[in-house]
Amino acid sequence: MPAIRNSDLEPSDELYEHLRIVCDPGQSQTRIDKFLFEKLEGVSRNRVQNAIKARCILVNGSEIKANYKIKPGDEISVVLPSNRDELTELVPENIPLDIWYEDDHLMVINKPAGLVVHPGVGHYKGTLVNALLYHFQHDKLPLLKGNKEDRPGLVHRIDKGTSGLILVAKNDYAMTHLANQFFHHTIEREYIALVWGEVEQDQGTITGNIARHERERKQMAVYTQGDIGKPAVTHYEVLERLYYVTLVRCWLETGRTHQIRVHMKHIGHTLFNDERYGGDRILKGTIFSKYKQFVDNCFEVMPRQALHARSLGFIHPVSGESMYFEAELPPDFNTVLDKWRNYVTARRELLENE
Description:
Elements: E1 3-6, E2 16-22, E3 30-31, H1 32-39, H2 45-53, E4 57-59, E5 62-63, E6 69-70, E7 75-81, E8 99-102, E9 106-111, H3 128-136, E10 143-146, E11 149-152, E12 163-169, H4 172-183, E13 188-196, E14 203-207, E15 209-212, E16 220-223, E17 233-242, E18 245-252, H5 259-266, H6 289-301, E19 307-315, E20 322-326, H7 331-352
Parallel strand pairs: 12-19
Antiparallel strand pairs: 1-2, 2-7, 3-6, 4-5, 4-7, 8-9, 9-12, 10-11, 13-18, 13-19, 14-17, 15-16, 17-18, 19-20
Helix pairs in contact: 1-2, 2-4
């Protein structure tokens, strides 16, 4: 029997998996699509052929065709969307979608803050998935099952409190092709974040494995020693310094759960109003009551973490065209920024008049 193991289950999203199969010395020559259909549980032959066409299946590091015959010692690398058991019944709901682009194969949606991406514990209705089912009808979207939730069309996700762009696949081939791009980190993703404190360096890179927090199970944490968690890399650049907070842009090499939120906290700059990670209280600033009122007012204007998925770049799975989309900051984010800018101006004028 060949050795089959999960070599590197990707991301934050954990919406696809990577398998490495090593054929044993007694392996007979067999078409690879037939071989994988027989070996991979719950995977159709058509799904395997789509994955080969999308270059998601390699043999000894090289692309192959569906009629390739495997040989003893061949090393097969497989990247496929997860296909786990269906545990929830999904109901279509008429929820408006802010569609930025759509064709026969995919769509790009600008998700508002507060909209949960997929059903889960405490969120069985009113999600982006429910909206997609209503918009397309269930039989028109590939069903990606993973991590105990069904996710029609979704190859990645962003948190409930995060606004911005999200990519949706409309057929199995597009799903497989886009999942492969996410797995190999060729998808371009840029985020804008407002964080507590003055970030010292104008730009930098944060590294550190991310895994579930040992005590706070709703949080993720950074582990810099040992083999706990999955490797994560976040690059950042300062855009604007506003005394007690800093506006930064972040771009990802990996896509772990809460990656930006956890990495920024790890270097001492928790996201502004990030309740889960302690950013919903004053972490930098004065003790004056007027300052506290000012910050509380900002929290009321933007009652969520200050994080926005601004841009998304990828290769179209069918045309091969480079696609790029950008969504400017939403009103709540812009309003809070204006408040901080006004605060900085007033503070500067006060210091000049002393």
